[in-house]
Amino acid sequence: MKTSWRSASLVVSAVAVAALTTACGSETAPPASSQNVGATAAAGDYGNGASLGSGYDAGAAGEENAATPSKGAGAGELAVATNEELGEMLTDSAGMTLYRFDKDTADPAKSNCDGDCAAKWPPVSADDATAGEGIDKALLGSVTRSDGSKQLTVDGWPAYHYAKDTKAGDVNGQGVGGTWYALAPNGKKAQGGAGAEAGDLPGLSTRKDPELGEIVIDKNGHTVYRFMKDSPWPMKTACLNDCLEKWPVIEPVDAADTKGIDLKGSGPRGQGYVVFDRPDGIKQQTIDCVPIYTFAGDKKPGDTNGQGVGGTWYAIRPDGKPVGASEK
């Protein structure tokens, strides 16, 4: 990706290193790669929302029925289906949606979904997969998994079913954990018209929302939120365990991979774009020392379904301020 915001990466990186020397209430200088702040879990409700999952949907109940694809299920003749919100997407011969995982790689093809992950996201077998109408057979391939089985790939991306899709046309896996997306026929993410632009976005940037104004979005064009029960000074989080199923954390994003984000901060030491070492061991990006999240209920770029949820979740501005709420 060759865009103008990357041309200043060295300058921005230098700013980021300086920002990480003292910040967010820490009395000692952390390493340049992260802000190692001891966090205290606070009690509190995290609001309402669709319970979908974080990462590979680790907190999902795992219930399945006879209609759910099993691990290593075949695909048969692949087909192109049209979803009202997501546009064209790939399905197997039974009409079940195929997905890709952001933590996999396409070049070289590699799956990073095993164990419990593979139970919830069954790999699609490459053994009987063929290209149906509208699908370029040259894009179909396979990758050898850790158990020796062959998994279907589409333009290098390993393909999966989702255990919570129970009938043809279901797209319950779309956006889960901010890492799972329906596969488009060309191997990219099926995200409708806005999805075509998402592939060119930096890790964090901004967009003008017609109702909320300028808000932060992630690399997939999804709205970024903050939780009013979290604390930036010192950094603490009240979103743990089941909360993360609905509100996946934003993983660390290099300062050079941002556009329009305030990297300075307004705290006592004037630095706020740092990485938060959460009490559960997860590393989370912050803006102005405010931990940031996406919402599992946002299915496509431009959605703001998390705005105001529980009276505690709000879209975040480039300077870390909440949209539509006052800080106490």
TrEMBL record:
Tell me which UniProt keywords the record has, alphabetically. Lipoprotein, Signal
The leader peptide range reads 1-18
Provide the residue span(s) of the region labelled Disordered.
188-207, 304-328
Output the PANTHER family linked to this UniProt entry. Answer: BLL4220 PROTEIN (PTHR39335:SF1)
**Protein name as it appears in the record:** SCO0930 family lipoprotein
Q: In which organism is this protein found? A: Streptomyces lanatus
